[in-house]
Amino acid sequence: MSVRELVVLGTASQVPTRHRNHNGYLLRWDAEGILFDPGEGTQRQMLRAGVAAHDLNRICVTHFHGDHSLGLAGVIQRINLDRVPHEITAHYPRSGQHFFDRLRYSTAYRETVGITEAPVDADGVLVTTPSYTLEARKLSHPVESYGYRLTEPDGRRMLPDRLAEHGIKGPDVGRIQREGSVGGVSLAEVSETRHGQRFAFVMDTRLCDGVHALAEGCDMLVIESTFLDADEQLAVDHGHLTAGQAAEVAREAGVRHLVLTHFSQRYSDPDEFERQARAAGYEGELTVAHDLLRVPVPKRR
Fold first, then answer.
1. Is the dihedral of CA 158, 163, 168, 170 positive or negative?
2. How far apart are the C-alpha atoms of 128 and 142, rounded to whole Å?
3. Would you please indicate which residues are annotated as catalytic (active-site) residues?
4. How far apart are CA 282 and CA 254, in angstroms?
5. How do residues 29-66 score in pLDDT, each as one tens digit?
């Protein structure tokens, strides 16, 4: 049985708090696991969340500030300690190659697993697999930063009334899906497009074209909301978003499930992020993330 869910490992910006670990997010996408922005303490959070090194297939780092990357050393060494039997690919800004190298080889350990380094240096598609296309878009932050987006290929949804109208039943239903037509009836006549699921991960950034492109039409958008709206100038100065800005992006993009995260330690009331997101007009499903939360990706439309 396939599972598509977000496992939240940490939600703090800049520094961890007593209740929030540094960033870390695992997307389970069928048989694959994609780890985003492993900050300090991610290895321990994985244990607490029931996530094993064997669950990882890709690591995607948006940028090389410590709260998004200091956990790389521990995660990579755990991958090798556990002798993960499959190759793991790491994506990160090419301009931070020296940081990645330092984190990967920060201490002595026995390297037993192949980690393919696939740095990002421009907008575009990073990889296409049978179950998704992974692409990156540049964001606006004091250091080079990229957001990531997964798009499942579109499929077809069979329409029972159309099948019955054309007398197609039993084995012929499978046959028309495989071959494209049966007895002069085309697949298009008895089915409709089923749009693939779309997921986007947007961390430290000001509002920019990349944010909107990543969010467009997403079933789930995981996005930073470091500041509340009263501190919008701080957000602009430091390259971040407010809760209201993140919600406006989601509303305009038609996002179905908005996940807010990456909260400044200056705020003690997480409910205020939800209130401001709703005040910005977002009416879809909304989650203010906390550590060790599991959030299902919305079912296909």
1. positive
2. 30
3. 67
4. 9
5. 999 999 999 999 999 999 999 999 999 999 999 999 99
Tokens of 284: 């879809």
| C-alpha to C-alpha distance for 173 and 149, rounded to whole angstroms | 33
What would the pLDDT profile of 223-262 be if each residue is shown by its tens digit?
999 999 999 999 999 999 999 999 999 999 999 999 999 9
**pLDDT, position 156:** 87
Q: Mention every residue, 6+ apart, whose C-beta is less than 8 A from residue 49.
A: 7, 9, 26, 292, 294
Give exposure, 180-194, as e/b (b: 16+ Cβ within 10 Å).
eebeebeeeebbeee
- Please answer whether residues 222 and 211 qualify as being in contact, where contact means their C-beta atoms are separated by less than 8 angstroms: no
* pLDDT, position 1: 47
- Cα Rg of the chain (Å, integer): 21
CA dihedral 25, 4, 128, 45 (to 10 degrees): 20
HSE-up (13 A, CA, CB side) for residue 126 = 29
H helices of the chain, in order, are 42-49, 66-69, 72-81, 97-104, 160-165, 171-179, 209-215, 232-238, 243-253, 271-279
Q: What pLDDT, in 10s, does the model give residues 150-197?
A: 999 998 888 899 999 899 999 989 999 998 998 898 888 888 888 899
HSE-up of 167 (CA within 13 Å, CB side)? 3
Q: Which of 212, 225, 226, 298 is nearest to 257 (CA)?
A: 298
Query: 242 with 166: CB under 8 angstroms?
Result: no
> How many CB atoms lie under 10 A from the CB of residue 179?
10
Rounded to an integer, what distance in angstroms lies between the CA atom of residue 150 and that of residue 83? Answer: 27
For 40-94, give the secondary structure using H, E and C.
CCHHHHHHHHCCCHHHCCEEECCCCCHHHHCCHHHHHHHHHHCCCCCCEEEECEH
Q: Summarize the confidence of residues 265-289 as an average pLDDT.
A: 97
Count the neighbouring beta carbons within 10 Å of the beta carbon of residue 51: 20
